[in-house]
Amino acid sequence: MNRNVSIKLYLSIIATGLMAFCGVLIETAMNVTFPKLMTQFNVDTATVQWLTTGYLLVVSIIIPISGVLKRRFTTMKLFITASIFFIVGLLICSLANRFDILLIGRIIQGVGTGIALPLMFNIILEQAPLDKIGLLMGIGTLVTAIAPALGPSYGGFLIGINWHLIFGILLVIMVIALIMGLASIRQVSKPERVPLDFVSWLMISIFFAGAILAFNNIESSLSTAGIFGLIALVGLIGFIIRSKRITRPIVNLDVFKNKSFNLHVVSFVMFQIMNVGAAFVLPNYLQIVAHTSSLTAGLLLLPGAALGAILAPISGTIYDRLGAGKPIMIGLFFQTIGIILLMVEALSANPIPPLIGYILMMLGTGFGMSTIITNGLAQVPSSQNVDGNAVFNTLQQFAGALGTAIVALVVALAQVSTDYAHTTALGAQHAFLLLLILQVVNISCIMLGLRFGKTTANEAD
Q1: The last residue of a domain, from among 212, 234, 249
Q2: Whole-prediction pTM
Q3: Could you tell me if 145 and 28 are in contact, meaning their C-beta atoms sit under 8 angstroms apart?
Q4: Do residues 180 and 304 share a domain?
């Protein structure tokens, strides 16, 4: 298949991508507002953290049913619904003068993001020509890949003026995205009367809620984390058993019968853990160890984020022409060198190595991450693409929570002496050593995945 991509398709990808971008941007922008919000609302760290935890919980609960929503409703209805939730949530947060009101706004935003994230990639998978899949998946990744690193700079700048503007400015972007989507989104498949199995949804919700709460409690209470972990395990087992007994599960678990798909998924999770882990460690390292301001720390991460985002569609074009192997291997090379540099130079307290190391890591992400998603989905029949996309999007949120919790724990365990700056640097070094070990797992998985599977979208049935 070789046909041109319409302007309307590009606009529909950008419209849904902007919504996903705003959701991810606020997630990381909120991190730098916590000290200010704790003082203003007189709440502690554990309480203010719920602005992120509650949001992630809702996103993780909504995304698994994206396959059912996609089959049951038109793309336009889903887009409008996501836009309404997101705009209402932003409006509430931009006017909030109490912590509980702010939290309600964040939870409402989570519903919008949960619908929007898989919607963008579903549009690409359903409407893009096969020979343009890599390019368009790269563009979709570009829209959201820069958001996590932009967040600290965006939040750090606006918190000095008024933190309400973090939400208010994005209202304008969301209105633009809504207008763009209304003018461009089209329907190519007929909706079906697909039932939503509420028992399965309850089980998967228990799993993600338990898992995220377990990760968040690892540092403060291992026993509490263990209880939530056990609850998560019960939810997961219940979900698997239920899915095998019904004819229309919310996620078709047959996608996991493909060995190459599974290996691509594991590699994607490793990539996400490393990206989120580095994005958590470096701003704290730059402020505590290198003594930069929060705004400067955010700006130092900006070049890497920008380069990584720009490279995503370039990587997609390479995939369309040459297959998955080359862009993924290039990405793994850059990311490995970046992690090693960050680990070796962690004790130097010099802001330049983190700048260079993060650029190298994001170059690796730009080349590798979107290609892993695209090629992973090429391993399963096209009828299972919606389910495969739900798996990738759900695990992106899950891996983000896991990555943050793991590196936060590693850094906290090192911060035991009175020399806070030195022990933070030591904790950062340990965290990057852990990421390097995960990179070895990542390389092993993706090499096996490429060996056992297809290497271009055109090979998919």
Answers
A1: 249
A2: 0.81
A3: no
A4: no
